[in-house]
Amino acid sequence: MNRIDATFTRLRAVGRTALIPYVTGGDPTLAVTLAIMHQLVEAGADVVELGVPFSDPMADGPVIQRASERALAQGVGLKDVLQLVADFRRRDALTPVVLMGYANPIEAMGAAVFAERARSAGVDGVLVVDYPPEEAAEFAALLELHQLAPIFLVAPTTPAARLSTIAALARGYVYYVSLKGVTGAGHLDTADVARHLAEIRRSIALPVGVGFGIRDAASAQAIAAHADAVVIGSRIIQEIETGPPDAAAERAGGWLAGIRAALDAVRKEAA
Predict the structure, then answer these.
(1) pTM for the complete prediction?
(2) Is 60 a catalytic residue?
(3) Which of 63, 23, 78 has its CA nearest to residue 47?
(4) Annotated catalytic, 144?
(5) DSSP string over the chain
(6) Cα–Cα distance between 102 and 24 in angstroms, integer?
(7) How far apart are CA 219 and CA 244, in angstroms?
(8) In the chain, what are the domain boundaries?
(9) Catalytic one among 27, 46, 49, 228?
(10) CA separation for the pair 238, 248 (Å, rounded)
(11) Residues 208-260: tens digit of each pLDDT
């Protein structure tokens, strides 16, 4: 069983919401990113989304763009991020790692080579923002061949026909973009998220994670009442960038621990 499936099965059995933090590989350095990943797991992360730095993102807001720029300035690329996952696996054989990024680096490496290297490194899932599901059947099949979960974004504007296409291709979980905009945007409408999640679940049986706009314990708790997972990226990057790099892991982990406690409080109250 894929580590992602095993994790959601375990969490579902105890009524716990998955916590999925995002960090950019190579920000502020590869060595510090590795320390951050381990610290996030110690703080309660259930899955780690690891961003592949890219120069022309279409979904990332200014905070994550800055993280990519810092990594790219050091020459960090897809090969380095895959090695980072392999290094992470030396200490952690259980926590799922999902790569999140864009098509260009994968196309430059070659999709088949990428899938083989990703599996070898210990990657569990892959989310490529600019591979639309209508054109991703071949890539999704390639990932599955290497026991990697193809993960797709679902937006508030996703029509029913596209939901059906995603349902046929996706594995692991789907990532619901909770608002119209880029990462780190505000104006999170919990009632609207709940309504859209109900619509998504009528078409897609996989767990649904919600991200974009979750910035604190209150918003995380509000989403946890409806979602299978809470995904947080920009707010963690802000913790990383607002202080000395050698203490970035402690800052990120300390902040995430508060979110973990908030999520668990929601589940305890519901029980």
Answers:
(1) 0.94
(2) yes
(3) 23
(4) no
(5) --HHHHHHHHHHHHT--EEEEEEETTSS-HHHHHHHHHHHHHTT-SSEEEEPP-SS-SS--HHHHHHHHHHHTTT--HHHHHHHHHHHHTT-SSS-EEEEE-HHHHHHH-HHHHHHHHHHHT--EEEETT--GGG-HHHHHHHHHTT-EEE-EE-TT--HHHHHHHHHH--S-EEEE-SSS-TT-----HHHHHHHHHHHHHH--S-EEEESS--SHHHHHHHHTT-SEEEE-HHHHHHHHSS-GGGHHHHHHHHHHHHHHHHHHHHHHH-
(6) 13
(7) 28
(8) 3-270
(9) 49
(10) 10
(11) 999 988 889 999 999 999 999 999 999 999 999 999 999 999 999 999 999 99
Sign, Cα dihedral of 50, 139, 5, 227: positive
Q: pLDDT tens-digit profile of 132-162? A: 999 999 999 999 999 999 999 999 999 999 9
With a cut of 90, say whether residue 182 has pLDDT above it: no
Question: Catalytic pick from 60, 124, 228, 239?
Answer: 60
Cα–Cα distance measured from residue 178 to residue 226, given in angstroms and rounded to the nearest whole number:
12
The CATH class that applies to domain 3-270 reads alpha beta
In sequence order, which residues have a C-beta less than 8 Å from that of residue 229 and are 6 or more positions away? 8, 17, 18, 19, 20, 46, 47, 173, 207, 208, 209, 210
